[in-house]
TrEMBL record:
Lineage: Bacteria, Pseudomonadati, Bacteroidota, Flavobacteriia, Flavobacteriales
The organism of origin for this protein: Winogradskyella eximia
The protein's name in its UniProt record: Histidyl-tRNA synthetase
InterPro entries: DUF6495 (IPR045470)
Length: 158
């Protein structure tokens, strides 16, 4: 398996898609029950293949990622060949960006000297989707890019 197995909840959400996946392999509901009971390793393989297909579909559509920690914000734009990063950092332990109060502090102090901005570009390894997957596994969230766009415009104007 290249990525990770979907959770039980994710499989339940994708129940119809999984049925369609089995149908593409000419596996009926009765045959699937038989496989689960008598060939559990084959059932595990099918679950893994389906999980990888779902992940591949999701990862192929990712345009923006965010990773917000108490004193840092990392905003990523996932382009075709590379990833653009806008990062913000503060050294003030009293401020926590993961809280509403911390985010309000950032808004009010955005242009102060206590907020450091970084802008970078990074090429993907040989596997763009795996790079994105690893970032999600380490805590990044897929977003629509509102924060990235906001800060990209701010950096451009500075």
């Amino acid at each position: 398996m290249k990525y990770s197995r979907l959770t039980k909840e994710q499989f339940e959400e994708l129940h119809q898609e999984f049925i369609n996946f089995l149908a593409t392999q000419s596996i009926t509901a009765d045959e699937w029950e038989d496989i689960k009971k008598n060939k559990p390793e084959t059932a595990e393989q099918e679950l893994d293949v389906f999980s990888d297909l779902v992940w591949l579909g999701v990862l192929g559509k990712v345009e923006f990622l965010e990773h917000i920690s108490p004193q840092q914000i990392h905003l990523f734009q996932c382009n075709e060949k590379s990833m653009r990063l806008i990062a913000l950092r503060i050294d003030n332990k009293a401020v926590d960006f993961t809280t509403k109060e911390g985010f309000n502090w950032l808004r009010d102090n955005l242009l102060s000297d206590s907020v450091e901005f970084f802008n970078a570009k990074k090429e993907y390894s040989e596997d763009k989707h795996l790079d994105i997957f690893k970032m999600i596994q380490s805590g990044a969230n897929i977003t629509k890019g509102e924060l990235f766009t906001y800060f990209a415009n701010l950096v451009k104007g500075a």
